[in-house]
Amino acid sequence: MTEYRVHARRIDSHGSLAIAKEAEVVLDTDMAGRRDAMNPVELLLAALAACMLKGIERVTPMLAFQIEGAEVTLEAVRQDAPPKLTLIRYQITVDSAETDQRLDLLHRNILKYGTISNTLLGAVPLEGTLRRKG
User: Fold this and answer.
1) How far apart are the C-alpha atoms of 131 and 134, rounded to whole Å?
2) pTM flag (> 0.90)
């Protein structure tokens, strides 16, 4: 069993700071919002994007998959009452000459072995595709 730890603290009414290992992330906890930090939903989406990109790094050697680059774009739909996400859409774009069948295999493996994607799937629908850059 693996455990993770993050410590977060309020700096002032405009922001907070999260610390894990030697990394720090400024958090947008200002009620008016701020442009130079991610709010909680954006952080959740960033965690999902990182999960998917890390999944690519994990499975490409196992599949002997040739890739030159990858990008993930996400968006979330939020309802107001009660406040919650009702849908997360994603687009994974890979720069690769692999066949469509191999791209599909990569996509399935990214979702199958992703800690964040598997956790979120229990709470909110994830809809998306993996496509070739071009």
Assistant:
1) 9
2) yes
- Residue 54 and residue 49: Cα distance in Å, rounded? 8
* Beta carbons within 8 Å of 63's beta carbon, 6+ residues apart: 102, 105, 106, 109
Nearest to 69 by CA among 94, 91, 98: 94
Q: To which H or E segment does residue 106 belong?
A: helix 100-112
Q: What tens-digit pLDDT sequence spans the chain (134 residues)?
A: 999 999 999 999 999 999 999 999 999 999 999 999 999 999 999 999 999 999 999 999 999 999 999 999 999 999 999 999 999 999 999 999 999 999 999 999 999 999 999 999 999 999 999 999 98
CA distance 67 to 106: 11
